[in-house]
Amino acid sequence: MKTINQKIVLSLFLASLGLVGCSEAQKESTSETKAEMTEEMEDIKEETSDYLDDAKDEASDMMDEASEKASDMKDAAQEKASEMMEDAGDEVEEMKEAGADKMKEACIKMKEKTGGDVSDCN
Questions:
Q1: CB distance 110 to 116 below 8 Å
Q2: How many CB atoms within 10 Å of residue 40?
Q3: For residue 117, what is the DSSP state?
Q4: Which 8-state DSSP code applies to residue 119?
Q5: Which residue stretches of 1-122 are H helix?
Q6: Cα–Cα 20 to 30 A to 5, which of 24, 40, 77, 118?
Q7: Quick check: helix, strand or coil at residue 121?
Q8: Half-sphere exposure in the Cβ direction for 62 (13 Å, CA)
Q9: How far is it, in rounded angstroms, from Cα 90 to Cα 86?
Q10: How many CA within 13 A on the CB side of residue 94?
Q11: For 35-57, what is each residue's pLDDT tens digit?
Q12: Which are the contacts of 116, defined by CB distance < 8 A and separation ≥ 6?
């Protein structure tokens, strides 16, 4: 019986060593997994930070571009308005001159009909 008891004790001892070995391996595995996850989380944080920086830079570039386009459009509109005002001023001058010519012609015709002095129409 002693040998059976010894075998049982020996078996229990070996089993407990196996369990201890397994739990140590699990602890090491858990520790390694935790370290890997921490490293991955740091990588993700860094990638996210880089992504946000890139997104901020792109947004800033887009705002600069939009501002530049708006400024160009404003300048073009001002230039066009200035040209239109100049053209309108020229047309007004032409209309004044044409009106003055018509008034002179009408004055001359009236003086000729009434026998007045045409030199008064200048």
A1: yes
A2: 10
A3: -
A4: G
A5: 2-114
A6: 24
A7: helix
A8: 6
A9: 6
A10: 6
A11: 888 888 888 888 888 888 999 99
A12: 110
